[in-house]
């Protein structure tokens, strides 16, 4: 019999990266400081790889809410929501999220990944899911679990999306699946065009708001609010691990659909419920998101300033108005070398390489938060200038 463990070989591109000492992953953080810095290997680094855009993960109000929940309800739920793990706290958060997003109902999940896997219950083998090329791996896995046909179009390529919609079997189901704010490039979905095509062809539109809900839009309700198209989105998914500063996720939409997913989505039915501490922290975060818009403004202003600095140095980035700044490198090894140079300069960023990005499009992902100071942004720009020149990436 073939030993399945024999197939478990590390990818060929990992070995040279490791041997050169530029492996950019699994570096443990010893301490997270409240001012946008972390301690790694005894060194204090400016962190620009975090998804904690509003700087809430270290906020005392979230910590206090989590501690109160632990003292009252314990550290875990001891079961799935359907069996015995449901808490009044869960239902309170669900009601608040539904009202916040202008949806009839919401359902809280243990992680954002599981919130997206819930979508597998919406489609089946005869159906087609049309998805942007840059969607998150969890969304791809949801389609795989459903056994629906996955057709992907180039990022925000509405002409291609229209062509794929025209090819769909009218006797089967179809679904458009995209993100509000894309996690690798920081670009926004072309929601006006996408929603228009969804209406024209009579298909449902599902929007993953993991990165934009809490950050984008006048009220922080995400890309749909930014475009004034909240009614055009049939179903939202979101993650608490970004703007909400904790863990967990949720799905929000029509009550009939949420009730259906509560009973049919395997990632909901068979997962232990979200811990009390994370549920309480998410509720505290929602209070802050609704009442402190200046956090969004600070995070976005910091990104605009740093994006201009990096572009001015000669790096190729995107122009989207979000907190994510992709610094395109192209070559995987060169990208990892840049990551290490930045690390040595005192900056902790994120290297994004295939399959997280398309082949030949490796990049350094930089993200800003509401906590970053002008001095820290100066340090990041100076580190990129020094590292980029050493590697011949900029003049």
Entry keywords:
Aspartate Aminotransferase, domain 1; 395 residues; globular; alpha/beta; 16% strand; 15 helices; Aspartate Aminotransferase, domain 2; 14 strands; seven-stranded mixed beta sheet
Q: Helix- and strand-based class?
A: alpha/beta
- The low-confidence runs, each spanning 5 or more residues with pLDDT under 50, are none
Overall number of structural domains: 2
CATH architecture label of the largest domain: 3-Layer(aba) Sandwich
The percentage helix is: 40-55%
Q: Which strand-content bin applies to the residues? A: 15-25%
Radius of gyration: 21 Å
* Sequence of secondary-structure elements: HEEEHHHEHEHEHEHEHEEHHHHEHEEEH
Q: Strand order, biggest sheet?
A: 4-10-9-8-7-5-6
Overall CATH class of the largest domain: Alpha Beta
Basic shape: globular
The CATH superfamily title of the largest domain: Type I PLP-dependent aspartate aminotransferase-like (Major domain)
Provide the CATH topology of the largest domain: Aspartate Aminotransferase, domain 2
Largest sheet: 7 strands, mixed
Distance between the termini: 57 Å
DSSP strand tally? 14
Q: Report mean pLDDT, rounded to a whole number.
A: 96
DSSP helical segment count = 15
């Amino acid at each position: 019999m073939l030993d399945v463990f024999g197939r478990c070989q590390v990818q060929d591109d990992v070995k040279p990266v490791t041997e050169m000492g530029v492996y950019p992953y699994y570096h443990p953080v010893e301490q997270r400081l409240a001012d946008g810095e972390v301690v790694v290997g005894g060194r204090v680094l400016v962190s620009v790889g975090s998804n904690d855009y509003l700087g809430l993960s270290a906020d005392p109000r979230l910590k206090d809410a989590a501690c109160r929940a632990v003292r009252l309800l314990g550290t875990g739920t001891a079961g799935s929501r359907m069996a015995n793990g449901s808490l009044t706290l869960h239902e309170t958060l669900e009601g608040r999220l539904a009202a916040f997003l202008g949806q009839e109902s919401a359902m809280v999940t243990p992680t954002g990944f599981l919130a997206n896997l819930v979508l597998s219950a919406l489609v089946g083998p005869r159906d087609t899911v049309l998805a942007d090329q840059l969607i998150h791996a969890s969304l791809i896995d949801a389609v795989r679990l459903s056994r629906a046909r996955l057709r992907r179009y180039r990022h925000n390529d509405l002409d291609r999306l229209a062509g794929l919609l025209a090819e769909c079997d009218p006797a089967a189901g179809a679904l458009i699946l995209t993100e509000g704010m894309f996690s690798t490039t920081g670009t926004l979905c072309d929601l006006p065009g996408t929603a228009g095509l969804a209406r024209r062809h009579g298909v449902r539109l599902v929007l993953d708001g993991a990165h934009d809900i809490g950050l984008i839009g006048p009220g922080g309700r995400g890309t749909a609010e930014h475009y004034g198209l909240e009614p055009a989105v049939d179903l939202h998914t979101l993650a608490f691990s970004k703007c909400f500063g904790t863990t967990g996720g949720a799905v929000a939409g029509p009550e009939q659909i949420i009730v259906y997913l509560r009973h049919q989505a395997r990632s909901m039915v068979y997962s232990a419920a979200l811990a009390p501490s994370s549920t309480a922290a998410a509720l505290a975060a929602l209070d802050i998101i609704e009442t402190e818009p200046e956090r969004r403004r600070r995070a976005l202003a910091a990104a605009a300033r740093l994006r201009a600095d990096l572009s001015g140095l000669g790096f190729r980035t995107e122009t989207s108005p979000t907190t994510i700044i992709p610094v395109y490198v192209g070559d995987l090894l060169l990208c990892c070398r840049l990551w290490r140079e930045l690390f040595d300069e005192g900056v902790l960023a994120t290297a994004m390489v295939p399959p997280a990005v398309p082949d030949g499009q490796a990049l350094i992902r930089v993200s800003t938060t509401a906590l970053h100071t002008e001095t820290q942004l100066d340090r990041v720009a100076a580190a990129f200038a020094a590292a980029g020149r050493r590697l011949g990436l900029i003049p």
